[in-house]
Design the sequence.
């Protein structure tokens, strides 16, 4: 999955219009980012790369969408 496709999936997960996320957004600024979104992100990351094993603590330490992309091992994580 490309970076763009992953961001589109994350837009959908967060119920945002397609193309909203670019990677530089702070998670604290996204009202849709909550515990349910974290669970959805874990599933999304696992579908992207089955070797990715994420837990809530790893995700909670992320402050930006770019940090989430790095956790999910999405290529081209620079914003």
Sequence:
């Amino acid at each position: 999955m490309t970076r763009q496709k992953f961001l589109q999936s994350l837009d959908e997960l967060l119920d945002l219009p397609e193309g909203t996320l670019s990677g530089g957004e702070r998670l604290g600024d996204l009202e849709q980012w909550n515990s349910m979104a974290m669970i959805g992100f874990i599933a999304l990351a696992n579908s992207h790369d089955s070797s990715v094993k994420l837990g809530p603590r790893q995700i909670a330490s992320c402050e930006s969408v770019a940090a989430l992309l790095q956790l999910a091992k999405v290529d081209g994580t620079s914003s």
Summary: The chain has four helices and no strands. Residues 35-48 form the longest helix (14 residues).
